[in-house]
């Protein structure tokens, strides 16, 4: 009991220190970094207490950590709905909404194929081989494999169209977030038509939407202000549960995945430079979202933070909302890009295939893009994305089951990259849309 009270007191003391820093500097990024640092130290210290005491302490810390994650999920849907609707409300016409959505999705699919190539190249450079892991037991179930049998592009596209708004509001489907976005876009187009055809009613709707947005944003800011404390609690649990000795035989695979993730972050930075954006400023701005995604391993829970930091970086409201929302279920650079490609690179040489040949890349990269949408259709993250890609290429899938045991370790980096990929898609899409608009506005000579 004394240990539990001592660690609760430590958490409260650290929280007070973070509060004082945040109060004087008013910097969420710095507060999140401090919270993460405290969480690492507390988590490591828990290795020196009994297992029973450690479990009890983390149970109490989960009130803050999991409670924060739940609050972010709670505000995500109203934030998505009202922010997109409010942004459309400020438009003069509805012609650009479809183009905007297609541009964002196009950027996501482009990035996930680049991520696939990076994962493939990294694994081949390091020289990972599937035969090294032949002695390990696969934990893949028949149900996991069966889910990929129903994946087809027409069915996936159809699954994105909602049939019951209230069902999607409960998060009952794996694509519920996308369903909400589709409904909101439809509602936004209808709103613009009402404002054009019935101005008086349109003005009333517009005023109501603005008021609700102001209210929802206040609620979101209250939750986001808790980020340093939530990150500290989540990081404590991660480092208190981590056991390096459990993963010694798979360290090469883990290191390869992390290196490929790092390489893709560098690619993101290069794309920012090409788009005329400052990558240092970008990563400083989005740090809270990336940190939370890393420790929570939840793209869906990261949506409010991803939207907020994109807007802080200058991405328009509608683009930021659509990119963060779609990115929670499709185009995931880590889960659907790098992870399946690393496994493919390990299997291909055992089948006498050169994974870097142009003919193979022409088959694999579209499969990666399809798999990134397939994750939205069936859910399950990197494992099912890998199953979809391997099944599409007619590769054996047993190797995927070997790595399920280390999913949490790899998934932290994958999720951070997933969220960053969605935010980069928002930045690139907004830049492309700006260029198209500027070209359209240039006078003819």
What does this structure look like?
The chain contains 19 helices and no strands. With 445 residues, it is an all-alpha fold. The protein has one domain: Orthogonal Bundle (Proton glutamate symport protein). α12 packs antiparallel against α13. It starts with a helix and ends with a helix. The relative contact order is 0.16. Residues 439-445 have low confidence and may be disordered.
Give me a quick take on this structure.
The chain is an all-alpha fold and 445 residues long. It has a single domain, classed as Proton glutamate symport protein (Orthogonal Bundle). Helices cover 78% and strands 0% of the residues.
Blueprint of the fold:
Layout: H1 2-25, H2 28-45, H3 51-89, H4 95-126, H5 142-149, H6 153-159, H7 165-169, H8 176-197, H9 199-224, H10 227-241, H11 251-274, H12 279-296, H13 303-313, H14 317-327, H15 333-347, H16 358-378, H17 381-392, H18 398-402, H19 407-441
Helix pairs in contact: 1-2, 1-3, 2-10, 2-12, 3-8, 3-9, 3-10, 3-14, 4-11, 4-14, 4-15, 4-16, 4-19, 5-17, 6-16, 8-9, 10-12, 11-15, 11-19, 12-13, 12-19, 13-14, 13-19, 14-19, 15-16, 15-17, 15-19, 16-17
């Amino acid at each position: 009991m004394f240990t539990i009270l001592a660690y609760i007191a430590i958490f409260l003391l650290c929280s007070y220190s973070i509060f004082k820093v945040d109060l004087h500097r008013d910097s969420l990024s710095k507060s999140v970094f401090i919270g993460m640092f405290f969480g690492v130290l507390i988590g490591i210290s828990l290795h020196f207490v009994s297992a029973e005491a450690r479990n009890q302490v983390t149970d109490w810390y989960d009130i803050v950590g999991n409670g924060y994650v739940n609050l972010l999920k709670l505000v995500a849907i109203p934030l998505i709905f009202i922010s997109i609707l409010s942004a459309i409300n400020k438009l003069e016409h509805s012609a650009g909404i479809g183009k905007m959505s297609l541009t964002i999705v196009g950027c996501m699919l482009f990035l996930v194929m680049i991520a696939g190539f990076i994962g493939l190249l990294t694994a081949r450079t390091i020289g990972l081989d599937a035969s090294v892991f032949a002695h390990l037991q696969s934990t893949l179930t028949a149900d996991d494999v069966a889910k990929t049998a129903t994946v087809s592009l027409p069915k996936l596209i159809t699954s994105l169209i909602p049939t019951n708004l209230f069902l999607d509001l409960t998060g009952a489907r794996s694509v519920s977030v996308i369903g909400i976005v589709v409904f909101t876009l439809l509602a936004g187009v209808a709103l613009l038509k009402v404002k054009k055809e019935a101005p008086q009613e349109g003005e009333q709707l517009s005023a109501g939407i603005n008021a609700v947005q102001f209210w929802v944003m206040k609620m979101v800011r209250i939750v986001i202000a808790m980020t340093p404390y939530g990150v500290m609690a989540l990081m404590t649990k991660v480092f208190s549960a981590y056991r390096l000795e459990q993963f010694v035989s798979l360290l090469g695979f883990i290191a390869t995945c992390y290196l490929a993730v790092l390489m893709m972050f560098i690619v993101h930075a290069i794309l920012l430079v090409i788009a005329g954006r400052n990558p240092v400023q970008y990563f400083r701005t989005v740090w809270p979202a990336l940190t939370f995604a890393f420790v929570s391993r939840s793209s869906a829970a990261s949506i409010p933070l991803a939207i907020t930091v994109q807007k802080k970086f200058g991405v328009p409201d509608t683009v930021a909302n659509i990119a963060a929302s779609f990115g929670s279920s499709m185009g995931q650079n880590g889960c659907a890009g790098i992870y399946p490609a690393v496994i493919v690179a390990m299997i291909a040489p055992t089948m006498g295939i050169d994974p870097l040949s142009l003919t193979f890349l022409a088959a694999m990269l579209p499969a990666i893009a399809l798999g990134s949408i397939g994750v939205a259709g069936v859910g399950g993250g990197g494992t099912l994305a890998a199953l979809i890609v391997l099944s599409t290429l007619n590769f054996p899938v047993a190797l995927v089951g070997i790595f399920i045991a280390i999913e949490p370790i790899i998934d932290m980096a994958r999720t951070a990259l997933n969220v960053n990929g969605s935010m980069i898609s928002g930045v690139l899409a907004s830049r492309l849309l700006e260029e198209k608009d500027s070209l359209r506005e240039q006078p003819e000579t």
